[in-house]
Specification:
CATH topology of the largest domain: Four Helix Bundle (Hemerythrin (Met), subunit A)
Oligomer: single chain
GO cellular component, one term: plasma membrane
InterPro entries: Integral_membrane_YccS, Integral_membrane_YCCS_YHJK, Memb_transporter_dom, YccS_N
Largest sheet: none
Distance between the termini: 64 Å
Number of strands: 0
Number of helices: 30
Family: Belongs to the YccS/YhfK family.
Radius of gyration: 29 Å
Keywords: Cell membrane, Coiled coil, Membrane, Transmembrane, Transmembrane helix
Subcellular location: Cell membrane
CATH class of the largest domain: Mainly Alpha
């Protein structure tokens, strides 16, 4: 019996199904109330309230969910009453325009504020759609709030039944992304594609995988953060926290870059080593995928002994090649050590006896970066920092406000029946950038037309009220099931839901179909015109600032690594913040360059150097991450005083050089030559005296120095491009 219940819970109630359960149960309860009391005219208000609450349903602990629901209900009530009051007095257009700008700008504070604010904006539009001058002033607001309360209560019950399912799904997505990243890294060791001409494409694929890891990490971190704020942490939360930190370590280790690939490939092309490296990384990618699968099925991960055997074979092969005088053995051994370190993290995940709570040192450092800004002054400052045209958020807020103004104006001037569908469509398809807006509006139009075509069959079926309510339940649930990943499908089902709702409240299905299509087309057209001509994102691709941020954050990351190598390993929050900032800025640079490459005609001059600039930037990040992978071995480093004195001094100086590059200091080039000469002289003099590990670190520092002159050249090219094109 227990096995059946576990199978039912894990296989049938996946995270996707659990996410849909609240709206499914809430709409069922609303349908039952409407059908029992025979109050079909209240259907749309109750359903809209439940759906609006569902859009603000964010993963959190129980008390956090209660707090979110409380503030959401207050925001909904104020928004709905304000909208109704404005409609009755004729100043709805200025209200919705100002509300749009304010709600979008709240995104500067954090994703949770953004989600609630956007749903609050939708609430004002929903109220306008069902507004009737003859109704009691509080009627529609009350219906919407009751619907939201019904959803909120059911969502709490579902959470109590499945408290960890969403958190585990987010961790599973994180390890899935890590698996894809490792697979992209394994492609560098493909013996059949070892030419230098393939490296830029591999770097782009690796960059996309890196962005995927960052996105998944954000979701996992948010789920964990809100559960760690309570004093008594659940054992499952502590276990998931251990998974999360192990995943971060795997990511940093996998980002390491121990030598220039061109040299590496030439020396290994006809050996078994390249096959062994590739196979082990692929096995570790499979292991990450298996962890994701086990998380979804609530099963413990069991370490794959195949990786251990493969590592043993690699060690034997390395010893054989060492005896035969292979060059740069230390670099090869470093890669093998990193693969062993990844395996150690996988073994740690598979060991159920390890508990972060029992490790006092880990308990002190097991903190996560907050998702949102909590201090009121910091909130205001965060919003102020975004108030410039260089900010995508500010441009989106102004653009959407203009879209909302003209959409509402058209609806009122031309007395369009149910004209606020134009407004709703324009809001839902408008995105911060042109390509995303274009994709959404196409999906919205296609989904709406298909939904209307299917809706044409309903009058011929002559459904009863019970059947109509059942279709509303199904279409609402399917809308939530597809809304995150399949916007076109979600539009199709919400169109069906809206058409049936209109029929239930007595508006008439035939009267709703054609206006629904026309309003959608009009809203999509307004959104497209705004995205294409009002501060389009391609005019604000800030390559210059993105490159500067990458250099400055890489310098900060290098300083934190140097400090831990010198003074002792600590998995401090400040170190993780620095590492995350460096990864974020590199991803932002990659995103900007990717957008430029998608518009070759506009950025023809930049495309002569930006692909290589991105390639060198990834190499820099990988070399710095390699140094970071040795943080735990700082005691061994400090035993060699002569090595420590030059290594730490030059490492800090290199961090200063990266800062100087960001401002294009003219002294940088000569300083690079001086540092490289000093490190080279030290390596030649002490190569036989210092141990292998210190020699590897020294060589890593030199590898960074050796790519900096190239980076310096491209920084100069970018600066010249910025002067002439202001990009």
């Amino acid at each position: 019996m227990n096995k059946f219940i576990k199978t039912l819970s894990n296989d049938w109630f996946s995270a996707s199904i659990v996410g849909v359960l609240p709206i499914f149960l809430a709409t069922n309860l609303i349908a039952l109330i409407v059908w029992t009391l025979q109050i079909p005219t209240y259907t749309m208000g109750l359903i809209l309230g439940a759906m609006a609450a569902g859009l603000t349903d964010l993963d959190n602990r129980f008390t956090g969910r209660l707090k979110n629901l409380f503030f959401t209900l207050i925001a909904f009530a104020i928004s709905s009453l304000s909208s109704q009051f404005a409609l009755s007095h004729g100043w709805f257009i200025p209200l919705i325009t100002i509300l749009t700008f304010c709600m979008i700008m709240l995104s500067a504070i954090g994703q949770r504020y953004s989600t609630i604010a956007f749903s609050t904006l939708l609430m004002a539009v929903y109220t306008a759609m069902i507004y009737s001058p003859t109704a009691i002033w509080y009627e529609h607001t009350a219906l919407i709030i009751i619907g939201a309360i019904i959803y909120g209560i059911i969502a709490m019950i579902v959470y109590l039944l499945f408290p960890h399912r969403i958190m585990q799904e987010n961790l599973a997505l994180y390890f899935e992304a890590l698996g894809k990243y490792l697979q992209a890294r394994a492609n560098f060791f493909d013996p059949d594609e070892m030419g230098e001409e393939n490296l830029p494409q591999k770097q782009l694929i690796l960059g996309q995988a890196n962005i995927g890891v960052m996105s998944a990490l954000d979701r996992a971190r948010t789920s964990l953060f809100y559960r760690l704020r309570i004093q008594h942490r659940h054992s499952r939360t502590r276990q998931m926290l251990r998974y999360f930190f192990s995943g971060q370590e795997i990511w940093e280790i996998a980002s390491s870059h121990h030598t220039e690939y061109a040299t590496f490939f030439r020396e290994l092309q006809n050996t078994d080593l390249v096959f062994r490296f590739q196979r082990i990384i692929e096995l570790q990618a499979i292991a990450c995928q298996q962890i994701a699968n086990d998380l979804r099925h609530d099963s413990p991960y069991e370490d794959q002994h195949r990786i251990e055997k493969a590592l043993k074979g690699l060690s034997q092969s390395l010893n054989y090649h060492k005896e035969n005088g292979i060059k740069h053995f230390h670099h090869l051994q470093s890669i093998a050590d990193n693969l062993q370190n990844i395996e150690n993290q996988l073994v740690q995940i598979s060991d159920p006896t390890i508990d972060i709570k029992n490790d006092k040192k880990a308990q002190q450092t097991a903190r996560l970066i907050p998702e949102n800004i909590s201090n009121f002054q910091h909130m205001i400052q965060a919003i102020k920092n975004q108030c410039n045209l260089g900010s995508p958020l500010f441009r989106h807020a102004i653009r959407l406000s203009v879209v909302v103004f003209f959409s509402a104006l058209i609806a009122e001037i031309f007395y369009v029946e149910q004209g606020y569908w134009i407004l709703l469509t324009a809001i839902l398809v408008s995105q911060p950038n042109y390509s995303a807006t274009k994709k959404r509006l196409i999906q919205r139009v296609i989904g709406t037309i298909l939904g209307v075509i299917v809706g044409l069959s309903f009058p011929y079926l002559s459904p009863t009220l019970g059947a109509q309510l059942g279709l509303i339940v199904v279409s609402s649930s399917l809308f939530f099931f597809f809304k995150a990943n399949k916007f076109g499908f979600s539009t199709f089902f919400i169109t069906i839901q809206v058409l049936i709702s209109f029929d239930v409240v007595g508006f008439g299905l035939d009267n709703a179909m054609l206006p629904r299509i026309l309003d959608t087309l009009m809203g999509a057209l307004i959104a497209w015109l705004a995205a294409a001509y009002l501060w389009p994102d391609w005019k604000y691709l800030n390559l210059h600032q993105s490159l500067k941020d990458m250099l400055v954050n890489s310098a900060t990351y290098l300083r934190h690594i140097t400090a831990q190598l010198q003074f002792g390993y600590k998995d401090q929050l400040s170190y993780r913040v620095a590492r995350r900032s460096a990864q974020n800025s590199l991803a932002q640079l990659s995103s900007v360059i990717s957008n430029m490459m998608s518009e070759p005609k506009k950025y023809q001059a930049a495309l002569e150097f930006v692909p290589e600039l991105l390639n060198i930037s990834y190499s820099l990040s990988s070399h710095i991450a390699t140094l970071g992978s040795y943080r735990r071995k700082n005691n061994e480093l400090n035993h060699d005083i002569e090595f420590a004195s030059i290594f730490f001094k030059q490492s800090k100086l290199m961090a200063d050089l990266l800062d100087q590059m960001a401002i294009k200091s003219e002294d940088t080039e000569q300083t690079l030559k001086d540092i490289n000469k000093q490190l080279q002289d030290f390596e030649e003099e002490y190569e036989s005296k210092i141990d292998a590990q210190n020699l590897i670190l020294l060589q890593q520092l030199r590898l960074i120095i050796q790519i900096l002159p190239q980076l310096w050249i491209f920084v100069g090219m970018e600066k010249q491009y910025h002067k002439t094109h202001n990009v």
